Amino acid sequence: MPQSLKVLLVEDNPDDAKMVLRELKRGGFEPISQRVDTEVAFLDSLHSDLDFILSDYAMPEFSGLRALELLKKSGLEIPFVLISGTIGEDTAVQAMKLGATDYLLKDRLARLGPAVRRALQEVEERAEHRRLEAQFIEAQKMEVIGQLAGGVAHDFNNILAVIMGYSDLMIQKLEPGNEFKSYVETIRSSSERAAGLTRQLLIFSRKQTVQLVVLDINEVVKDLDKMLRRLIDENIELTILPGAQLGRVKADSGYVGQVLMNLVVNARDAMPNGGRLTIATSNARLDENYARTQKDAMPGDYVMFSVCDTGTGMTEEIKARIFEAFFTTKPKGKGTGLGLATCQTIMQQSGGHIAIQSELGQGTTFKIYFPRVDQPLDVAALPRTGPTPRGTETLLVVEDEPTLRRLARSVLELQGYKVLSGNNGQDALHNVRDHKGSPIRLVITDVIMPQMGGKVMVEWLKSANPDLKILFTSGYTDDAVTQQGALEEGVEFLPKPYTPTALARKVREMLDASK
């Protein structure tokens, strides 16, 4: 089957142009051609859709070398071949130095077809080289981001844990209607956004600690309802439509929430003058026909949630780039370009799929598919209602960040526990040795600390008390924690920043499980 070829003929002789086209057809091409013989006409016809330029060397009002010069100035990478009946070797060499792909004599056009094929192949090879080079640069960029995110995550998560924790305690103490309560709630909300940005960087650089549990997406959406409404403007109407008899998925609830929040923020920004935002969940099945037409889609049963807005929509060009890292259409300072790239990373890690429907001026719908599992809900994913659980057991908190150590101790003592503490593993072992009261039932410890880390300390403690419960915490990335050997199968882990409620519930859950 002939290969289609969009060719611009720079030729003043119509008969010579016909001869060239006949030779292209003999060479296996189906040329779609336009002939020009002046500089103005050449510039008007020069565009990126062209596959090839074939130019005579000398014409009354134009020349092949001038055409080549204009092509180079345009920045377009289009193969350019000179064809002439009078061109000499010196002129041919000059043309090649200026960037011509090849040169041919009009009385020897038999090699035109092979010359065109070779030039097209070279263009394809250069494009592939650029793609590989861009991927390499992107990989290096992601590595730098990962190192940066890992470097700041620990300290930043410790700080955020303190801000979020004391904000929660203040909100509990302040009476409804107190003007300071709204101030503290704003601080709490801002700290959640900061934690989200840190988590987004860690997810995207694939350094975030993943905690997979069997969960109900309806419950995740319900838990995020208030936060989502704080993210959007008052002129946006938010409707949530939970699906009935929804299946379960195995995922990190924080990841699911991150995807949902990113999509809601994008929808908000696409509706600057207000509009309608709808979040819906349902069971879904993707068949083989669908999977064949969609990248990264596998046939099977899924649980889907969709985020649909009535905003500005997107062009095909923008849709083709929305998952690129750092690509954003938002004004400077309004977006990082990581939101949708993070969503795609999460779905790839979860074995899921993202589908998008959007037209300019007609709004956008994202459909997020998580693989459906036939397993009971994990305890950690069950809805939590009622007051924060209390207890009277003796606990040990080991944390090298003083403010966070005091916060964790205060939270647990408020719930009735007796709490010992240490600022590192060595200090904690001394305190345990001197302890004369009721036996320690559970240890909450940071993983990475100076002098002695949590892993080594725990080995010493469990040698004397094998039944001792251990809850590791950390603000470091997955890589750093794994290298310490803390994330072994069956080990309980609470990532920073955690809330007072999350800490109290996790402690009570572990203590009750031991019974």
Quick structural gist:
The chain is of the alpha/beta class and 515 residues long.
SSE topology sketch:
Layout: E1 3-10, H1 14-26, E2 29-36, H2 39-45, E3 52-56, H3 64-74, E4 80-84, H4 89-98, E5 102-105, H5 112-173, H6 179-204, E6 213-215, H7 217-231, E7 236-241, E8 248-251, H8 253-269, E9 275-286, H9 288-293, E10 300-309, H10 316-319, H11 339-350, E11 353-358, E12 364-373, E13 394-398, H12 402-414, E14 418-422, H13 425-434, E15 440-446, H14 454-464, E16 469-474, H15 478-483, E17 492-495, H16 500-514
Parallel strand pairs: 1-2, 1-3, 3-4, 4-5, 7-9, 13-14, 13-15, 15-16, 16-17
Antiparallel strand pairs: 6-8, 8-12, 9-10, 10-12, 11-12
Helix pairs in contact: 5-6, 5-12, 6-11, 7-8, 8-11, 13-14
- What is the top-level CATH class of the largest domain? Alpha Beta
Q: How many β-strands, per DSSP? A: 17
Q: Note the main sheet.
A: 7 strands, mixed
Uncertain parts: 479-486
What multimeric state do the chains show? single chain
- Tell me the helix content: 40-55%
Mean pLDDT: 83
Count of DSSP-assigned helices: 16
Tell me, what's the shape?
Answer: elongated
- CATH homologous superfamily heading of the largest domain: Histidine kinase-like ATPase, C-terminal domain
C-alpha termini separation? 75 Å
Radius of gyration: 32 Å
Structural class: alpha/beta
β-strand amount: 15-25%
What's the structural domain tally?
4
Assigned CATH architecture of the largest domain: 2-Layer Sandwich
CATH topology of the largest domain: Heat Shock Protein 90
